[in-house]
Amino acid sequence: AQSVTQLGSHVSVSEGALVLLRCNYSSSVPPYLFWYVQYPNQGLQLLLKYTTGATLVKGINGFEAEFKKSETSFHLTKPSAHMSDAAEYFCAVIRGGGYQKVTFGTGTKLQVIP
Amino acid sequence: EAGVAQSPRYKIIEKRQSVAFWCNPISGHATLYWYQQILGQGPKLLIQFQNNGVVDDSQLPKDRFSAERLKGVDSTLKIQPAKLEDSAVYLCASSPAGQAPFYGYTFGSGTRLTVV
User: Tens digit of pLDDT for each residue in B31-44?
Assistant: First the structure.
C-alpha cells in the first residue's frame, strides 16, 4: 500500500521568505511523486514531478522539490514567497507498474503575509 | 490545447434528489478519472476509465453513485439519491493512456456540489 503525509494543514510565511511544505510518503516500490497546486475554485495544476533520475526537480513558478529516499520525503520549497503563491498544495504518489493508482495527501494551505 | 471541461460549475440540491455531472477530457486522452474532494481533504479517486472500460471503481459508493463513459470520450457521474455527506467538489481529470506517471494528470475546474 502507498500513502502520503503532509505535515501542517496551514502554513504562513511572509512575502519574500522561504517556503517549505513537507511531504513524506510510504511505498513498497519506487514511487512517482508529484506536487499539485490548487487555487480557489479551480482544479489542480501540476507543479512538478519526480519519476527517475535527478533527485532535485524544478517546477513552475520557481518551486522545486528534492526526492530523499533515505528520508522518504519529497518536500516542496521556494526561496522567496510571492503573494500569488497563496493556494493549497497537494503532494501525491503514484505506484508504478501496470496500474497507476494515485494517492493524494490532505493538502497544505499556504498563506503569504504582506 | 483545450483543457478538461466540466459542467456545471456549481450545483445545489436537496438531499434525496439526483444530480449529474459532465466531463469532456482532453482530446486523445484515453484515461479519465473522477475524484471527490471533500472540504479539508485531498482528492479521493471514485472511478477510473480506460477508454470506455472501468479500471478501478473500488471507492465508488455503487448504491448511489454511477458513472459511464460512452464511446470512450466524455463521461457523466450521477448521484441518486444524494446525501448530505456528498457535498464536495467533484473533479474530473484525464491523461494519455499509461503515461500518467510521467506527465501527471490534467484536471478540470470541478463541480462544487452542495446538498442541503
Answer: 999 999 998 888 99
Q: Closest chain A residue to B92 measured between Cα atoms?
A: A43
Question: What values do phi and psi take at B20, rounded to 5?
Answer: -135, 145
Nearest to B91 among A9, A34, A43 (CB): A43
Nearest residue of A to residue B103 by CA position? A49
- CB–CB of A74/A65 below 8 Å? yes
With CA atoms as reference, the chain B residue closest to A42 would be: B109
- Residues in chain B with CB shorter than 8 Å from the CB of A96 are 101
Using CB atoms within 10 Å of the CB of residue B74, give its burial: 0 to 12 exposed, 13 to 18 middle, 19+ buried.
Answer: middle
B79-100 pLDDT tens trace: 999 999 999 999 999 988 777 6
CB B42 within 8 A of CB A109: no
Query: Which set of grid coordinates corresponds to residue A82?
Result: 510571492
**Dihedral (Cα; A93, A18, B109, B114), 10-degree rounding:** 90
Q: With beta carbons under 8 A apart, name residues in chain B contacting A92.
A: 42
B109 to chain A: which residues are within 8 Å by CB? 41-43
Nearest to B41 among A36, A100, A106 (CB): A106
Q: Is B100 exposed, middle or buried (0-12, 13-18, 19+ CB in 10 A)?
A: buried
- The model's pLDDT over B43-58, given as tens digits with 9 standing for 90+, comes to 999 999 998 899 889 9
A60 φ, ψ (degrees, to nearest 5): -80, 160
